[in-house]
Amino acid sequence: MADILRIGREHLASQGAAGLSLRAVARDLGVVSSAVYRYVASRDELLTLLIVEAYNDLGSRVETVVAAAPADPFARFAALADAVRGWALREPARYALLYGTPVPGYQAPADRTNDAGTRVVVALVGILSEAWATHAITGVPAGEDADHDLPPRLAADLEAIRLDYALALPSWLVARAMSCWSGLFGAVNFEVFGHFGEATLTDAGEMFDQTIRLLARQMGLVQQPELPVGEDGPGRGGAEHVSGLRGPHPSGARRRGAGD
Amino acid sequence: MADILRIGREHLASQGAAGLSLRAVARDLGVVSSAVYRYVASRDELLTLLIVEAYNDLGSRVETVVAAAPADPFARFAALADAVRGWALREPARYALLYGTPVPGYQAPADRTNDAGTRVVVALVGILSEAWATHAITGVPAGEDADHDLPPRLAADLEAIRLDYALALPSWLVARAMSCWSGLFGAVNFEVFGHFGEATLTDAGEMFDQTIRLLARQMGLVQQPELPVGEDGPGRGGAEHVSGLRGPHPSGARRRGAGD
DNA sequence: TGAAAACGAGAGCGGCGCTCTCGCAAGTCA
DNA sequence: TGACTTGCGAGAGCGCCGCTCTCGTTTTCA
Fold first, then answer.
1. Which residues of B touch A124 (CB under 8 A)?
2. In chain A, which among 126-155 make CB contacts under 8 A with chain B?
């Protein structure tokens, strides 16, 4: 029932996926361990529930933020990236559940996670579709990466994806979206999992910004030069904070150390 | 002793980090579980040993491949990326140990893993240093991303890194190296951990090639047009297979499914 | 009111990490 | 040669885990 999920979420957040135990959940619930098996078939089942929930949590967060961002495709992409990063730093254990090492011996059943799991990348291609339709894809030198440059099998796969999701995008742009999609999560992974080194970056958010800018440029999204005029000063109303110039970062979120 | 490490490595490869148990190692060793505690302080200690070993395994593999690659910086980077990907696909469990979810409640002691863990990125900046010294960094439009564009704290951090490793590279290029470093492992992560979808890519290697090309361009490495003349045909002697045109990929390496 | 369903408790199985004690064998030294 | 230290594996044991099965109680509903 709902209590099990709630306590499971708490344990997941505090001890990580590997530390999630049905016995501990039962204990917190004030119930004997065998009782929870009435509601949850196994530990893996509970994990699956939490995974789907986390995917949807991240997905709806991203969708909300993107929808609230200004129409400029770069700003929308930056908002998407910020949302992913912010969520990951806020919920490192749940993030790790989604984008870290798969739990060994078990893969979340695809039919239950696919829809939820693709919401971020769907939002990404949504941004690109909008940009493409409005001829806002500008950064890419013409002909540099046309479809005929794609290797044959990849071209076929991309075509299948285009049809599957009814994308009005050229294949090469879909390919770039996938590259940048993995690049985005690579950057978040490195930050959340501490691969940039403990003390090497005092403001990881600035590093992230740089990476995001590169990714955006790869997809042909260029940063708008603040439009024609615009009143100087703060408050150009939009999502939480659109990359480019942004305030203090949620950086200092340390996952381990200095605590346990 | 060595036997423990060997069997530990086998278990790690077959069951993953979470499935590594000292009791099972002891069983395989034909010895009672408490006996292995003579040699290994704890399970985490064994994990640390295996982590360092894996970092060095990957690191020396990368260094070897890069050293054997042609002098062209793009080819060297492609060789590095190929080496990382190949190793990861060959040893998904060990790769996950290094670049997946950190084992909860435990972080490999930095003093024992830092040297080994940085060999790949050191190799990467080595390639860039060589390229920079020989004025082979060409892809980046002049002035587009000069150092003065970097935000202040990041600039300071990069400067510290430059000094720390005695790099003869401009800060903006160091920043790009870090972005591409995370992007590279993002791509490998997605492939190894199956985030590209089970059946969506028939040849993940081609997708990887595309990503690598983008990353290379971000660092100002452009693919050499096969030099002035060069005999056409195969065999331009070098590393295993340098990105660009390459044979069948080690793609079909499935990590789970269809087996257990 | 009585049958049926829902549900929690408890015992139990095998496996885990880890500790502690004991006994045995090899090496050390007078 | 005999006493002694040292190294090392065996075994029992603690508390944890996932999971199963049975049994008794409570709730629901006709």
1. none
2. 150-151, 153-154
Residues A243 and A199 sit within 8 Å (Cβ to Cβ): no
Contact present, B182 and A183 (Cβ < 8 Å) = yes
pTM for this model (two decimals) = 0.87
Amino acid in the structure at residue B159: E
Q: What is the mean pLDDT of residues A123-132?
A: 96
**Residue A143, pLDDT score:** 56
Per-residue model confidence (pLDDT) at position B99: 95
- What pLDDT is recorded for position B226? 56
Helix (H/G/I), strand (E/B), else coil: A241? coil
What CATH number has the domain spanning B58-218? 1.10.357.10
Computed from CA positions of residues B37, B38, B39, B45, in that sequence, does the dihedral angle turn out positive or negative? positive
Report whether B243 contacts B213 (CB < 8 A).
yes
Cross-chain residue pair A202–B156, CB shorter than 8 Å: yes
How far is the C-alpha of B227 from the C-alpha of B55, rounded, in Å? 35
Spatial contact of B127 and B76, defined as CB atoms under 8 Å apart: yes
* Yes or no, beta carbons of B161 and A210 under 8 Å apart: no
Place of tokens 């990929």: B249
Distance CA A172, CA B26 (A): 52
Question: CATH homologous superfamily of domain B1-40?
Answer: Homeodomain-like (1.10.10.60)
Every domain of chain A and the residues it spans: 1-40, 55-218
Q: Do A193 and B17 touch (CB under 8 A)?
A: no
Record: fold of A55-218? Tetracycline Repressor; domain 2 (1.10.357)
Tell me, what's the pLDDT at B48?
A: 92
Structure-token pair, residue B99: 């670049």
Tell me which chain B residues have a C-beta less than 8 angstroms from the C-beta of A101: 16-17, 96, 100-101, 193
Low-confidence spans in chain B with pLDDT less than 70: 104-107, 139-146, 148, 224-260
Cβ neighbours of A47 (radius 10 Å): 19
Q: What is the reported pLDDT for A56?
A: 96
CA distances (Å), origin A56, targets A62, A92, A111: 10, 16, 14
What are B72's two structure tokens?
């062209």
Please give the DSSP secondary-structure letter assigned to residue A234. Answer: S
Q: Any idea what the Cα angle at residue A87 is, between residues B178 and B88, rounded to 5°?
A: 45
